[in-house]
Amino acid sequence: MRSLFILLTVLLFVLILVLPFLGILAGAGAEGFAAIYEALMRPESLHALQVSFIIVLIVTLCNGVLGILFSLQMVRGPWLAGWLRPLLNAIVDLPFAVSPVIGGLMIILLFGPNTLLGAFFENVGFKIVFALPGMVMATIFVTFPLMIRELVPVLTELGQTAEEASATLGAGPIRTFFRVTWPSIRWAVYYGLALTAARAIGEFGAVLVVSGNIVKQTQTATTLVYQDSIDQNLVAANSVALLLGLISIVILLFLEWMKKRKEDQLHAH
Amino acid sequence: MLADRTAEGSLHLAHMPVVSGCQESFLFCRPPLNYVWRDRKLKVMPTVTPYQIAVRSLLIGYLLVLVVMPIAAVYAEGFSLGWTPFWEALTAVIAWKAILLTVKLSVVTTVIQAVIGTMSAFVLVRCRFWGRRLFNSLVDLPFALPTAVSGLMLLTLLGPQSLLGSWLQAFGISLLFNQTAIVIGMVFITFPFVIRTVQPLIEQFDLAEEQASYTLGASKVYTFCKVLLPAVVPGIIAGGLLTFSRALAEFGALSLISGNLPGKTQVASVFIYGEIENFNTQGAAAVSIVLLTLSFLVLWAVQALQKRRGIVT
């Protein structure tokens, strides 16, 4: 009975998770390694990868710094009234409930060419929709709860005694943060950053809507995969997808390795 | 913050010894404490520095611009022409068929996940077998993969070019561009949810309860249904709700494998994308409002459930 269940589960995992991944390997390698190399070295895929990289860099940096600031305020802020804290918590979670396509639609509705804000920024010479700023905004919208959700429980469990001790011993807020707070939240921050980066690389729906998917201008790696598979250029699509899949697996393994560190650190006190 | 000026002044003088040179260059002094009347008592509040004011405004402003305003914009756009166009946009045959199809298939996906997710979680926690740790890390793969890549994977696997696809075709089974394909895509995308909410509950479960049931003469099936299952049901419900809301929202994978036939295999998110491409933002916003409202209700239900039962997801 027991072995039957194990067999069923293993079968399920192989069918649902392993088989599709092998499918992509087979699809990319159908015409040999040279074809994969050629597909990745096309000017449009190089450009798409570069755009993806820039977006990931900006988004991860932004979410990292602001995420730490916000989590500290949300957990510790003495100014938050009793009703405000749960409200802020709920607002932070909202992006999880929003479909990525709707996330893109929101940016277009706010900053599109025929809206008030959009026209203003266009006049100043700063294009938001169908350009990099809009794509970054869409990605930030989708990813910004990740960092805060990772940090808030850690900060809550940590408590404030160590920081208060440091402050009474005469350390300033900056010194207290880097000497006392940072070492204990370090792994949670790295974990949140890795999650954010993974989600930012993979963001598709919102970016597709906002970018307009213009080849060699606003095309990211994921929208390139989409374009190639719609154009029936399956070997090229699978090659780029294989690269993205490998990056995701590396990040997944990295997260798995960090999860243990993070938990050890949390329970060390 | 309403500081009592006179009280602040006098107490400040009484408290702090006047250090020579401090008055000339007060920049180097620590700021005076902030005395406030509250509940008929004089209380000391931490001083509000410009830095703190900046951080607070940043936090509120960021949330307003980045989350509240965009969501409000969708609701505003949907109702921008009044109730009748909103209602007309929703009751257009293609629109409500897309919404209905999405809700129906999401429910099917949730039921499938509740069964296979619970089973997988039990096996992963309770059974020791070769490759268990590897499988346990693999569970999160659908979250880590870009959704477009997931869609392409299924497209390649089930398409006529692949071994499996051609084999299925020989039997006359097609798993692409129909409702089965959409369910397969949804199941792949939402795979981790139920497993990850049920797993900690099984790990926390006290074995003594189960052993007590056995010693009292209960059978394996009876023990499972009466002792174990009630303990993990909250996890199944929370995971199921998350699965449902994720399946409703999914776009990337489904846009590639659903086939996108209006009225037949077009799901709501792909319909919204089509409307945006046709510059019909009002119609797109109307359908978005339905999806958003459903998702918010689900999210709220999950949070209420977690608050009551204290489940950590």
Explain this structure.
- The complex is a heterodimer of chains A (269) and B (313).
- With 269 residues, chain A is mainly α.
- Chain A has one domain (42-266): MetI-like fold (Orthogonal Bundle).
- Chain A is built from twelve helices and no strands.
- Chain A has helices at residues 2-28, 32-40, 43-76, 84-97, 100-111, 116-124, 132-158, 161-168, 173-202, 205-211, 221-230, 234-266.
- In chain A, helix 3 crosses helix 9 (173-202) and helix 11 (221-230) packs antiparallel against helix 12 (234-266).
- Chain A is globular, with a radius of gyration of 22 Å.
- The two termini of chain A are 43 Å apart.
- Chain B is mainly alpha-helical and 313 residues long.
- Chain B folds into two domains: 5-45, no CATH class; 82-309, MetI-like (MetI-like fold), CATH 1.10.3720.
- Chain B contains 15 helices and two strands.
- In chain B, strands 1-2 form a two-stranded antiparallel sheet.
- In chain B, helix 4 (93-126) packs across helix 12, helix 12 packs antiparallel against helix 15 (281-309) and helix 14 runs antiparallel to helix 15 (281-309).
- Mean pLDDT of chain B is 82; it is low at 1-30.
- The chains are: A mainly alpha (269), B mainly alpha (313).
- Chains A and B meet through helix 1, helix 3, helix 4, helix 5 and helix 7 of A and helix 2, helix 4, helix 5, helix 6 and helix 7 of B.
